Amino acid sequence: MLLPPRYPIPFPRASISATVRMRRTFTLVTLFLIVPAVSFAQAGGTPFDTGFTAIQTLFTGTIAKVASLVAIVIGGYAFAHGEPGAKKTLAGVAAGSGITVMAVNDWFVENRYFPMREERWRPATKKTTEFEIRLYLVSPLGSKPMRILNTFELQVVLNKLAQTYSDSVVQHAYVNLKSILKTARKLKFVPEDPGEDLTMLDTKTVEKPTLSMEQIVALVSAVTDPHDLCLLCIGIFCGTRTSEVLGLQWKSWQGDYLLPFGTAHEGQFFAGKLKTGASRDAIPVPEPIRKVIAAWQRHCEDPSPEAFMFATFGRGKRTGSDVPRHGKNFLRWRIHPIAEKLEIPTRLITFQVMRRTLGTDLQKYGTLKEAQRILRHADIKTTGNVYMQAIPESVMKAINKRTRAVLKGQVIEGKSVTVPSGSQLRLKESVSC
What we know:
Blueprint: H1 13-41, H2 47-58, H3 62-80, H4 86-102, H5 105-117, H6 123-141, H7 151-164, H8 167-186, H9 213-222, H10 226-238, H11 242-246, E1 257-258, E2 262-265, E3 268-271, E4 283-284, H12 287-299, E5 311-313, E6 322-324, H13 327-341, H14 351-365, H15 368-375, H16 380-387, H17 392-407, E7 415-418, E8 424-427
Antiparallel strand pairs: 1-4, 2-3, 5-6, 7-8
Helix pairs in contact: 1-2, 1-3, 3-4, 5-6, 6-8, 10-12, 10-14, 14-15, 15-16
């Protein structure tokens, strides 16, 4: 019986040696990474919880990044030497390492949360919100893995903010943190939402200043430029937001009200972008201010419908074209010098203070619902809690009125005093007045 001829099968020495080196390397990685993690797991807590947390931290921290780099280098070496299946191995190592290393707090915020939310934010809101999230939330939490964040740790972050910052800062941090964690839960980056039980804390009281009537009259009387006067009066008497007034076009002017068609931020106009649905409502203009707007329209070089009511010249790529003004620059260079001469603190010369002043003064002249409509707030709570500051005179007037109504014609034994209405009251000697 004839046997078939034998043919020797060549085995490349380089391939065998590379495979051996790969196995040795993975053995070393396992020895130096897994064993310490398991040992650390015995330090405290239940073996499962502590061990899981330790390994999880290990594979999402700095060591994980080094290990991933080593794995990618080894995979690349095998791919270069033509190892069977090396292409799939390298792709799997790269993808798995990326998911493991990048599933951390700062990466999630920058690469998942911001891209999903930024289209909903106005330009000014986007800049402020991203800054606050990075400073107050990402910075203290750093690159901690999303899956090991817990309610206790997150509440401590908010507690520390409440000890230093105002209510608005802490409130924003609280809302943003809950939103980030809710998004992470929906995208399955965390098994459960650790932000569900977070609580908002009491914060230190922060002064919310307003302009007095005397300051308003002095400031308006001192401004003579038609452009500056018109812009200032709309801010003071119409209560527009900064981005709204700077984004007004001449087609917005309807004779007795202004209709916003967009907003402006840092010289850029964003058509159709407004804060809320209520922000699209018409802005009522008081009769005296209508004359100021009409005067500026007569002096304006370009009062065409699409032109900006308060334009300035563009720079750089926009040289030769009209662009919206920068609110801070306008106030700093055009209004602040006048305020300083009148000894009005420049910290009061902002569109936000003007808007708050209007909301506060409206307590004397209208209802809360009317103030909400004038300020165009979506939520009436914003009108009452943020923009309408408490007025002691109005509180005393209300309680005095009620007291006079109750005690009118009534006599209480004791010392006689006179109340503002002229009614005589007799109080017991034991009661101080």
